[in-house]
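Pasting as-is:
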Amino acid sequence: MDWADNENQATFRATVREVIETRMPERYQRGEGDWEHDRVSEEPAHREDAKKWTEALAEHGWVAPHWPQEYGGAGLSPMEQFIFKMEMAAASAPGVGGQGVSQLGPTIIVHGTEEQKTEYLPKILSGEHNWRQGYSEPGAGSDLASLQTRALRDGDEYVVNGQKIWTSGAHLADHLYVLARTDPDAPKHRGISFLLMEKDQPGISIRPLIDMAFRHNFNETFFEDVRVPVKNRVGEENRGWYVGMTLLDFERSNITGAVSSRRTLDNLRKYLQTEDGQRKAAGLDANRLEVADRYIETDVMFNFSFRIISMQDRGLIPNHEASVSKLFNSEMSQKIALTGTRIFGLYSNIWDRKDDRAAMKSSMTNSYLQSVAATIAAGTSEIQRNIIATRGLGLPRG
């Protein structure tokens, strides 16, 4: 691992910073708004912000920096990707393309047909398509292979029936990629296919799930006799589990957590230096060492992430290393938020960001509640520990 930029990397980092400083819309510079909400906003100015930022990144291929150039990406090396994401995170710059760019696109590039690549990849890059994942079910979360949503073959179509849960951002999407069981008699990791579908077609309904921070991120998704063309299957029939696991490999790389957490701590430190922060930080003396511990943990997290990128830069594929990073980052985010709420004591009972009595606009309180999902989403901490134990340490399965 080499922590210093070489000459080319330093030049690239400077270019990324310049684009962020000169092309990112003012609202995003102020930390307001995000691409996914703005692209479907009722406010024309917000939609324009999403469009301008997409165009600015697209000029450099940075909508999909990890995609090959022949598919419209930038073809950046793993280390360049790391630099790009680090600078984006440091500036709170919103990414573009959502799960379509980060997960589905690379999966189609690996497993999709030429027709699928031609049809879907350009629309992901332009922001015309926003995709969301249909994986988890009420009875199939960590044990995802137990899913029961059925897709029965009827000529050139599948007829899909079932339910998905925790469909993050489905209300903002216009397309879904879904794992469904196409052979109910096969072993549970087989008999599953990976299907692409439009969200607004007949038979699909989305119901909101409001989390404990009163935010609408999650949804229930119901499928009732939804017809999906066979040509919309990615990969072989009944081999969708392996297609889906390719996608999750991209999801778990996790190289921006340390930067985002460090920024949160920096914002906390700056606020504590203000008159308002000093007045509301009754618990600072008792938790001062915890703040120092959190800073140290962000450095540890950075090195976990840097290890993954260094492996990828050498042509290696991280496995249990990515689980170590995911586990550490998700639990670190919870500890940072908890430390913040302890520092502000009773002020942390104020949820309303607009309340004058709120400390840091209630950001620590809201982060604490939102962080509960961090150790569940994208593979629970228990699952990550099992992967680390069996694949990393070579321990036997229980």
